[in-house]
Amino acid sequence: MNLNQIFTNQRTGNNPHTIASRTDFQRDFDRIIFSAAFRRLQNKTQVFPLPGSVFVHNRLTHSLEVSSVGRSLGSIIGEFISESFKSDLTEDSKNFYLHNLGNVIAAACLCHDVGNPAFGHSGEDAIASYFERNERDLKPKFSEKEWADLVNFEGNANAIRVLAHQQQGKDEGGIQLTLTTLASIAKYPCEAIARQKGIIHRKKFGFFQNEKETFLEIAERTNLICESHEPHIFKRHPFVWLVEAADDICYNIIDMEDAHRLGIVSTADCENLFFELIKSENPDTKRVKEKLTSISNDNERISYLRAKVINALINKSIETYKDNFETILQGNLDKALLDIFKSNNKTLQDIESFSIEKIYNHKAVVEIENAGYNVMYELLDHFIPSVLKSKDERKSYDKMALKLLPNQFLYENGTEYQKVLGVIDFVSGMTDNYATDLYRKIKGIDIGMTM
């Protein structure tokens, strides 16, 4: 890949470039911050049920922290590229890598989860399984590729739709981000029909059929390496690895800190795992030990160690990215940056195993996943059968159901695929509380007027 040709300030919606005090990539960050999709993340589950007496992370606070880590990664790698490849770069490119790569990665990290539905991964599972469980009635209504989108519903692909799709009555191009920022969140740049486990850029998929043309424009303007035209498969953009690393660093470590605050993980277990990870990368832990002796509050001790661990993982990710840079540019790296490190670091492996056993399988987490699955499934079942009927076929209960769908999600003149995507847009965009509240109302559990 040519480092001069993998970024652009072109936006979705074909808006002309404007002169402003902020760069185009700083404007991306600001547009995401002020978007409704980002704001709704404040009431979407990260891991633990919301709300509670202890403030744990939700999707919004997680995204803000990932963005902070991503900005550091992008800024340092930008300096590396501008210095190491200065003879190959144009002046515009040098300026971009030196001053704006950090902004791109920060913006991409900020919006990497906007396509995720309520209730964590169980929300994704509920949407996909709704179509699987109703295959006999629904599959004949869609093309093979459209059906693959629905039965494999994926938050990463939905993020591209949320950010770039023109809803009914709204402006073209969604929130109109640069194609560079959008390329940076495309972890799986392929169609759903091309999914293949064991291949990092095809483990899931990156765009719905409805957004295919938008994604092809992203690929063309950022010069993604094309692996196949039918089905469409691309190699990852080089910036994706930094966004993924920032996310991996945060959720691996922050989930442990949240579990400690909730009393799920003991102070001793959390402290020992964090300390050992710091020690594995820097055997000289004298200053860390001295600092810990001055902190008696358990939460503060864990917070201090968490900060040291994140710093160590940032440094390791930067080192790994640099070591594999040529392979990344060729599109041939086959393992995430943190996974490369994890394969040689027993402590990080222990943290992962400990998290699976003690955190992700904890009763409270399993309960919210089960509840969330049922809520999301039932909401889809309330709307999709009605929206797929022609206006002449709809009974009074169908019409009443569709009155609950806001106009921007109704595509009455669209295909059946587009009508269903409209319902998915509505349901997947809901917060945990709103989805639960609407579910209780349509099921008759709560009856009465609320605004």
From TrEMBL:
It comes from the Bacteria. Residues 59-252 form the HD domain. Keywords: Hydrolase. The keyword Disulfide bond does not apply. It comes from Chryseobacterium paridis. This is Deoxyguanosinetriphosphate triphosphohydrolase.
